[in-house]
Design brief:
The protein is of the alpha/beta class and 251 residues long. The protein has eleven helices and eight strands. The longest helix is centred in the last third of the chain and has 24 residues. The structure holds pyridoxine-5'-phosphate.
Length: 251
């Protein structure tokens, strides 16, 4: 079966740069609009408790002004649930959030936090918001995601991106096995974190992965090459990897 690989562009770090000066520039909503024209399939934005990058007003504008589906990244808190229900994004990705972390470290402990997470997944799902859980490539977490009733998981590729050599190959093996396990469970499989031009191809080649969410590298690289050409190049790498993998499968 041929599966398309979607690109979700995470625009958080356009807001990081904006907030460094406190003014309106650069505007993350403008970046989202440009990403749409460059071939992104969706926009991802993480409204953190401390509002260090994306703000409430950005979410209002993203849902009102951008035609692409919004993947709203959120911690499982009452405040974020109320905001998600008010804006009704296409999807909500539940992530662990620590105030002192620089970025989302590790995946959600779905198995261990089941009772806390279940009401959030239920309320979002009842509102018609597609619930995704950001998890490590660990079969126990995927099994728990199914029990929770989430239709989607996003596999955390941060370890894969940070490791080198054989350790990276081993982590890639875990990602491949987890993606195959998702298929068996009927879970839609996404992946993201730390992906770059140099490391995206092996992940894009995993046939069960249907969406990659990429942010920090794209926004940083855009300083040198422009956002339009950076997104187009990432798209091209992903499309080529997927086409090659499908060619190998059918050969
Ligand atoms: N997916 C999720 C769930 C994330 O939390 C992040 C980081 O905000 C990303 C994808 C994108 O990661 P990066 O910015 O490293 O590309």
């Amino acid at each position: 079966m041929k599966r398309i690989l979607r690109l979700g562009v995470n625009i958080d770090h356009v807001a990081t740069i904006r907030n460094a000066r406190g003014g309106p520039d650069p505007d993350p909503v403008r970046a989202a609009s440009l990403a749409a024209r460059a071939g992104a399939d969706g926009i991802t934005a993480h409204l953190r408790e401390d509002r260090r990058h994306i703000t409430d007003n950005d979410i209002t504008r993203l849902t009102g002004e951008i035609d692409l589906p919004l993947n709203f990244e959120m911690a499982a808190t009452d405040e974020m649930l109320a905001i998600a229900l008010r804006h009704n994004p296409h999807a909500a990705c539940l992530v662990p959030e620590k105030r002192e972390e620089r970025t989302t470290e590790g995946g959600l402990n779905v198995a261990g936090g089941f009772d806390k997470l279940k009401p959030f997944a239920d309320r979002l799902g009842d509102a018609g918001i597609r619930v995704s859980l950001f998890v490590e490539p660990d079969p126990a977490q995927l099994d728990a995601a199914v029990r929770l009733g989430a239709p989607v998981v996003e596999l955390h590729t941060g370890s894969y991106a940070n490791l080198k050599g054989r350790a990276r190959e081993a982590e890639l093996g875990r990602l491949r096995a987890a993606a195959a396990h998702c298929d068996g469970l009927g879970l839609e499989c996404h992946a993201g974190h730390g992906l770059t031009f140099d490391n995206v191809v092996p992940v894009a080649s995993i046939p069960q992965v249907v969406e990659l969410n990429i942010g920090h590298f794209l926004i940083g690289e855009a300083i040198f090459g422009g956002l339009d050409s950076t997104i187009k190049r990432m798209r091209a790498l992903m499309d080529k990897a997927r086409a090659n993998a499908q060619g190998e499968q059918s050969a």
